[in-house]
């Protein structure tokens, strides 16, 4: 894939050491000692992790490495056993999921959560942060909330247009394909106006023809100043688009670095990339495999 | 058998105060289950605290009627908070288990000996509704069309009860067609998705539980006024299951679903009841006594419901397409 078209040649992480837990010059997210175990299994044990503001950071690792669990912990959808983390200088420990989202860190789910019985447009409008009519009493002030609704609708239409879903805005979300639901979930997350977006396998099940434009959206987000942290399996995608890559294995960060650093990291190549490259030989198989994850 | 009489009896019940009472309580259940996805199996508990809230205020404390109303509503709010605070952060099943248990415990508490000074214990309360009938502006006489007639007292009560149903429907319509309604419909499907978009899911579920409970309490108030006496043992768990039957019959997640469900089910109940009685009287069902009719009608209505749910799972006015969407 096009590693040059999106300008990955620009090094957005100048002078950062490619070692696990390395400090970043301008971190938007800082975590330390984050641990979570399920029974005897330690799913996440991250000593130190910083995410640089305004970059695309990929989180990779084999299945069961703890990537989704780490997302859940950082965004308040699961409780840590130990550890602390801060976002834009503000501690997020023990904050529940909705407060994390309001603080500007919005996530999507590996198993897509499109609200299937609402229309595509209602999915979008639901995510808008400024809506007086979402209060129980505000709901009776129709003229007020209808004005907010108009403003939000304009913004929703722009986003839907960008994600090629505008024609479907009045359909119920349940009528969308798995890939379209992924796109909707991403567009919906953007409706919240996040400063950082965390995407859990955004490409899984998306029509390969759409993957290119999805990548375009992600780089465009970064260029708009949004920080992106995403989980992905396709190595070509990751190498092409990421400014920084964090490798997780058995809950621990085993490597970090620019795409070139990761490619040159023998430990990672042996443990993960080697296997992944074998798999990516059977591309169509991998597609149908991820298709069920919606 | 007098079919005209049977039909008249059915219609009289279907538009009478009892149908309005059940419609009101089922509207609350519709907000809980139809729109928010909360499984409340203890709606009768809200009716109980509503009825007694009025009865105790007027009878025991000598408060005026309107104050009794406010007390009834306040009792429902307290009950909803008691139920919701410990359970609404947990998985959905915890709420349903708690509602069924708390409603039954409330009935036992209200009928207990130690509560007798307040609630009248097993003897219940009476004589608190005079204030309501004293306000009746409708001249004495008989009102109706054909064989369907109501007394001035009934008409006054029906105006009040159906008036409350109309207000409840209007409130519900405004709410579910607002951004607030969009949030609770989102919660009905997947509360994590809604939470990830920055909405405080707990607060929305609590608001829904409280408002639906208040509708239940208002139904209890109308029960108390209608009967002019209340008794703990009329608030048995089966009342809630009747409400569920009405909601599913009419169509959950539709503003008018519970109203239509209540009217239709009361019509069916009465007609089946009268038909059975008639058949037994003419000796067509020799193995039955006429006192069995009451029990049997429930079985027949159960069968009707079963057929409806098999062939029309969305209810009479539900949207089949919406219901059959693959949610996951
Ligand atoms: N709720 C849970 N209960 C028990 N084990 C879990 C739970 N969630 C995740 N795990 C386990 O934690 C490990 C990490 O899972 P996950 O974070 O989903 O991995 P990844 O997203 O990297 O594939 C896996 O071994 C998984 O089985
Ligand atoms: Mg995962």
UniProtKB/TrEMBL annotation, chain A:
Keywords, in A-Z order: ATP-binding, Nucleotide-binding, Transport
Protein name: Amino acid/amide ABC transporter ATP-binding protein 1 (HAAT family)
GO cellular-component term (any): plasma membrane
ABC transporter domain mapped to chain residues: 29-275
Pfam families tied to this protein: ABC_tran, BCA_ABC_TP_C
InterPro entries tied to this protein: AAA+_ATPase, ABC_AA/LPS_Transport, ABC_transporter-like_ATP-bd, ABC_transporter-like_CS, BCA_ABC_TP_C, P-loop_NTPase
Superkingdom per UniProt: Bacteria
Transmembrane segments: none
CDD domains assigned to the protein according to its UniProt record, in alphabetical order: ABC_Mj1267_LivG_branched
Keyword Cell membrane listed: no
Gene Ontology terms for molecular function: ATP binding; ATP hydrolysis activity
Region feature (Disordered): 1-28, 274-294
Automatic annotation (TrEMBL), chain B:
Xref: Pfam families: BPD_transp_2
InterPro entries, per the entry: ABC_transp_permease, LivM-like
CDD domains associated with the record: TM_PBP1_LivM_like
GO molecular function, one term: branched-chain amino acid transmembrane transporter activity
Segments passing through the bilayer: 6-31, 38-58, 64-85, 155-176, 209-227, 294-311
Protein's membrane topology: Multi-pass membrane protein
GO CC term, one of those recorded: plasma membrane
Compartments reported by the entry: Cell membrane
Keywords: Cell membrane, Membrane, Transmembrane, Transmembrane helix
Name recorded for this polypeptide: Amino acid/amide ABC transporter membrane protein 2 (HAAT family)
């Amino acid at each position: 894939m096009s590693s040059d078209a999106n300008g990955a040649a620009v090094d957005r992480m100048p002078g950062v050491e490619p070692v696990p837990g390395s400090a970043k010059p301008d971190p938007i997210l800082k975590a330390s000692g984050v641990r979570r175990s399920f029974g005897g299994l330690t799913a996440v044990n991250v000593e130190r992790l910083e995410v640089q503001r305004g970059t695309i950071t990929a989180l990779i690792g084999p299945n069961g490495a703890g990537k989704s669990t780490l997302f859940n912990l950082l965004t308040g959808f699961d409780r840590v056993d130990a550890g602390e983390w801060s976002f834009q200088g503000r501690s997020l420990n023990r904050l529940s999921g909705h407060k994390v989202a309001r603080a500007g860190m919005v996530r999507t789910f590996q198993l897509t959560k499109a609200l299937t019985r609402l229309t595509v447009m209602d999915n979008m409008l639901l995510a808008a942060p400024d809506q007086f009519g979402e209060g129980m009493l505000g709901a009776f002030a129709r003229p007020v909330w209808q004005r907010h609704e108009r403003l939000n609708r304009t913004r929703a239409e722009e986003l839907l247009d960008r994600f090629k879903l505008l024609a479907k805005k009045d359909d119920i979300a349940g009528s969308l394909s798995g890939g379209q639901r992924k796109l909707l979930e991403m567009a919906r997350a953007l409706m919240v106006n996040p400063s950082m977006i965390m995407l859990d396998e955004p490409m899984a099940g998306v029509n390969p023809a759409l993957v290119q434009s999805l990548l375009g959206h992600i780089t465009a987000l970064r260029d708009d100043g949004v920080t992106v942290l995403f989980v992905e399996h396709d190595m070509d995608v990751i190498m092409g688009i990421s400014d920084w890559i964090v490798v997780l294995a058995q809950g621990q960060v085993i490597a970090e670095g620019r795409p070139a650093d990761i490619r040159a990291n023998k430990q990672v190549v042996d443990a993960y990339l080697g296997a992944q490259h074998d798999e990516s030989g059977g591309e169509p198989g991998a597609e149908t495999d991820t298709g069920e994850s919606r | 058998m007098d079919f005209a009489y049977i039909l008249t009896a059915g219609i009289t019940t279907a538009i009478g105060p009892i149908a309005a009472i059940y419609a009101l309580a089922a509207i609350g259940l519709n907000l809980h289950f139809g729109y928010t996805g909360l499984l409340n199996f203890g709606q009768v508990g809200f009716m109980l605290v509503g009825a007694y809230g009025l009865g105790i205020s007027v009878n025991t404390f000598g408060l005026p009627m309107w104050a009794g109303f406010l007390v009834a509503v306040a009792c429902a709010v307290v009950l909803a908070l008691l139920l919701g605070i410990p359970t609404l952060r947990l998985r959905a099943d915890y709420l349903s288990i708690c509602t069924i248990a708390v409603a039954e415990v409330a009935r036992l508490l209200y009928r207990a000996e130690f509560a007798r000074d307040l609630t009248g214990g097993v003897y219940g309360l009476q004589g608190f509704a005079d204030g309501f009938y004293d306000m009746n502006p409708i001249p004495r006489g008989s009102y109706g069309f054909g064989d369907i007639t109501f007394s001035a007292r009934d008409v006054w009560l029906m105006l009040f009860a159906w008036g409350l149903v109309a207000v409840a429907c209007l409130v519900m319509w405004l709410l579910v067609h607002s951004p607030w309604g969009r949030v609770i419909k989102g919660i009905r499907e997947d509360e994590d998705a809604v939470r990830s978009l920055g909405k405080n899911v707990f607060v929305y579920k609590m608001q829904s539980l409280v408002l639906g409970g208040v509708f239940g309490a208002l139904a209890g108030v109308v029960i108390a006024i209608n009967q002019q006496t209340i008794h703990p043992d009329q608030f048995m768990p089966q009342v809630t299951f009747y409400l569920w039957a009405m909601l599913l019959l009419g169509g959950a997640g539709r503003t008018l679903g519970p109203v239509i469900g209540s009217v239709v089910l009361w019509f069916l109940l009465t007609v089946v009841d009268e038909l059975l009685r008639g058949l037994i009287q003419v000796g067509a069902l020799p193995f039955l006594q006429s006192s069995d009719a009451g029990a049997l009608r429930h079985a027949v209505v159960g069968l009707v419901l079963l057929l409806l749910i098999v062939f029309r799972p969305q209810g009479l006015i539900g949207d089949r397409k919406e219901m059959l969407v693959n949610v996951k």
